[in-house]
Design brief:
The chain is elongated, with a radius of gyration of 26 Å. The chain has 10 helices and 13 strands. 42% of the residues lie in helices and 18% in strands. By secondary structure, the chain is α/β, with parallel strands linked by helices. The strands form 2 sheets. It has a 7-stranded mixed sheet, covered by helices on one side.
Length: 393
């Protein structure tokens, strides 16, 4: 009891030595430290424990997947100064969370699954250059990792009235890398498609994949595409457009070209800002019924651990949808995908979920609203302590 009494009076004595202004400043600093540092650290402590692995890239590759960062642009955002503040805050969130995920994982490969910029497709040359510089300043921690860039509709067009043009594709490729091709990393072949279900020409896609097949030598093939592939093929046929004969024809052609020719074990996609695992048990079978693909879905929203995917079944194919890593996309669940792929033919996949930035911003508003009450309370406490001291002296 004596120690408690001493500590109590030491606490009041410590408070009494500060002015209300100093205590308010301490309160503000505490709110900032909690929101800008502690919240992120606590969230990273909640990430799933990494599987035991030897970190031998010849036998197992560790992949970090980032989808739809969509760096906020200038044209559609608020004007100065609000627009500058929102872009700065969004960039800081991406930079901070990516650094935490990268340091936690130390990946062999980093894959960006499209929509790197929000206004890349319609940006002026000067704006585009500034977006690219911001992107590399945000995602700077990638030394020692193989980095693969996949374009999205916000980067090169293709959604709605935003037409995809050769000029936009050339601009993306001049600042990043080719939009299609085979990227070989040890025992993996990454197949970059740049495919759109309703806009890509089957003839052109067949020619592209035919050229890719000649370069594929690795035992495991992984398709990288911004838009979902097998689930959209199914939706064109059954049940959404079951009576659309042209849709059936297009889906059948794309199924033959993308799946039959490339023979992938796995697809990584983004675009829908969700976390899902799609599995088609017989999509690569020669007897598959093209009018009704048995595609099963496993919801991975807020899934905490790792799911295991087996590649040894040569007629099945899996499509993993990676969630967005940006809090500006209107979803409460943001994260980075994590994949541990073994040469023997298996994968463990999970998501490093991120804290809600909007909750943090609401906390700032609540703290700001509480400032007058806290200021008054501090004045009362200090007055009472001062009155008590004068009374007993």
């Amino acid at each position: 009891m004596a120690m408690i009494w001493v500590k109590k009076h030491m606490w009041f004595r410590w408070i009494r030595n500060f002015s209300p202004r100093s205590l308010l400043l301490l309160y503000v600093l505490l709110v900032i430290v909690v929101n800008e540092y502690l919240v992120f650290w606590v969230q990273s402590w909640r990430w799933p424990s990494l599987p035991d692995h030897s970190r031998n890239p010849e036998e197992e590759l560790v992949i970090l997947l980032a989808s739809d960062p969509q760096l906020i642009g200038i044209q559609d955002e608020h004007g100065f100064p609000l627009g500058s503040i929102t872009r700065w805050d969004s960039d800081r969130f991406l930079s901070k969370t990516f650094a935490l995920a990268y340091n936690y994982l130390q990946p062999d490969v980093v894959v960006f699954l499209g929509d790197l910029m929000d206004e890349g497709s319609k940006a002026t040359q000067e704006e585009y250059k500034s977006y690219v510089e911001r992107f590399h300043s945000v995602f700077y921690l990638m030394k020692g990792s193989k980095v693969i860039y996949v374009p999205g509709d916000n980067d090169i067009g293709g959604e709605g009235g935003d037409v995809r043009t050769p000029g936009k594709i050339r601009r993306f490729e001049s600042h990043f890398e080719n939009t299609t091709g085979v990227v070989k990393v040890h025992f993996l072949d990454f197949i970059k498609l740049n495919w759109q279900v309703y806009h890509s020409s089957p003839v052109q896609m067949k020619s592209i994949i035919k050229g890719m097949v000649q370069q594929m030598t690795s035992p495991i093939r992984i398709v990288l595409n911004h838009e979902p592939v097998i689930v959209q093929m199914k939706n064109m046929v059954y049940p959404v457009r079951g009576n659309c004969q042209s849709c059936l024809y297009i889906a059948l052609v794309l199924w033959i070209i993308v799946l039959k020719m490339a023979q992938p074990s796995l697809l990584f996609v983004g675009h829908w800002h969700a976390s899902q695992l799609y599995t088609c048990d017989t999509c690569l079978s020669s007897n598959e019924d093209s009018s009704h693909w048995p595609v099963h879905v496993q919801d991975l929203q807020q899934f905490k651990g790792f799911v295991t995917v087996d590649f040894t079944n040569l007629i099945s194919v899996h499509e993993v949808m990676i969630p967005t890593c940006s809090y500006r996309m209107g979803t409460s669940s943001m994260g980075y995908g994590v994949a541990f792929i073994k040469k023997s033919g298996s994968m463990k996949y999970g998501v490093l979920w991120l804290p809600s930035r909007y909750y943090q911003l609401y906390a700032y508003l609540a703290a700001l609203g509480a400032l007058p009450f806290i200021a008054c309370l501090l004045e009362v406490v200090i007055f009472l302590r001062s009155f008590s001291r004068q009374r007993w002296t």
